[in-house]
């Protein structure tokens, strides 16, 4: 009788790839986890219970066929595992690194709920696709036939690039317009290398260009080219700009020198690691070296900032968040990593102002949690008389992002937007009320996860292809 290759969660314990020590990883911007070796990946994949109702799959926005590619990994069918993984996810090696698996696929794992520790789905997903790149299984896209239709995509982030990939596979002519000099959006300039090394993103960019996708970089829509010109050049347009406008802070001294935006800070650091010359870093404006750094916010961007500051050699790094640890929006895994690396968290703390013309401190109000708000989370309330000043030479605002005013920037008063400034689009297709104009990702959802942007991009591409095919059918009748 053949030996059962799966359901080993009772005898095999959960094991993550080895994590480099904080003392070592604080010295560089390389990813903190070592890759799985083949035997370990097979062992961990074999823990999957192959349950009849795979909650891991239903909790994944892309509905990745996780049980099957875990089975294939455990039984040595790795190239098949890659093909199955790639069938539903445009960037599995990126999701394996940066998805909050604890809140998505791994959070729904049945064996986790039975007390055996979840399958390490993200680490196996990363291993599968990293191996596919090493073995040469990842090829440029070669459509079965070219199509005459053309699609313009504004924004080279995960949503836009996922749509580009899907459309190109169908033979559509695709041009992507982006304001930056490298494609990838926040994957390239927002997320630090210790979570996502940049060669991983650049390989996907190269794959798309080798597949015939045209990237028009350093192209700011509304300045270098008009939105109307893009619409006139293509049969359909996808808006995938993301949300880049930082939420601001008020209070006394909010305009002091040394108070900077999170995205400016992270972009400077990532550019430096690409080898670019970054004047704002060299001047010290966006450099934490030797400084007392305070980061305000409790999301994943705040975690990226505090961990970057540690690596830049800050004297101290503190994170202020107005709620407690249990109510923070960011990943608990990232918070644990930050604490290991030396970050101090000041929970139930909110800024009320700043001292110094060049910032010298943050005036902090201590908080307690009161009654739940509309979202169900307890609202922070000020504790009177508990204020203090936290010393700071550099303050980084990581309070989240809002959409830019596209109606004004692009001179498009008819572009439908919500009261929050996001583009109003159909949920499943991304279609807007403007003929041939679609929108995907954060510019529709508000600041969200990379995996949701990928899902939106793929769904939108499918809807556009259906519309192109329907138009062909009508024309042929």
Q: Helices, strands, pairings?
A:
Blueprint (H helix, E strand, L loop, with lengths): L21 H4 L12 H8 L9 H4 L7 H9 L3 H11 L3 H7 L11 H4 L7 H15 L14 E5 L3 H12 L3 E5 L8 H4 L8 H13 L3 E3 L10 H7 L2 E4 L5 E2 L12 E3 H13 L4 H4 L9 E5 L3 H12 L4 E5 L11 H9 L3 E3 L2 E7 L5 E12 L5 E5 L5 E4 L2 E4 L3 E2 L3 H4 L27 E3 L2 H4 L4 H27 L1
Parallel strand pairs: 1-2, 1-4, 2-3, 4-16, 6-14, 7-8, 7-14, 8-9
Antiparallel strand pairs: 5-15, 10-11, 11-12, 11-13
Pfam families: Fer4_20, Pyr_redox_2
Organism: Cognatishimia coralii
InterPro entries: DPD_II, FAD/NAD-bd_sf, FAD/NAD-binding_dom, GltD-like, Helical_ferredxn
Q: What do you see in this structure?
A:
Residues 26-136 form the Dihydroprymidine dehydrogenase domain. Pfam families: Fer4_20, Pyr_redox_2. This protein is α/β, with parallel strands linked by helices and 477 residues long. The chain has three domains: 8-135, Fumarate Reductase Iron-sulfur Protein, Chain B, domain 2; 150-243 and 403-476, FAD/NAD(P)-binding domain (3-Layer(bba) Sandwich); 248-401, FAD/NAD(P)-binding domain (3-Layer(bba) Sandwich), CATH 3.50.50. Helices cover 36% and strands 15% of the residues. It has 19 helices and 16 strands. It has a five-stranded parallel beta sheet, sandwiched between helices. A five-stranded parallel beta sheet has the order 6-14-7-8-9. Strand 7 (292-296), helix 15 and strand 8 (316-320) form a beta-alpha-beta unit. Helix 4 (66-74) packs antiparallel against helix 5. The chain starts with 21 loop residues before the first helix and ends with a helix. The mean pLDDT is 94.
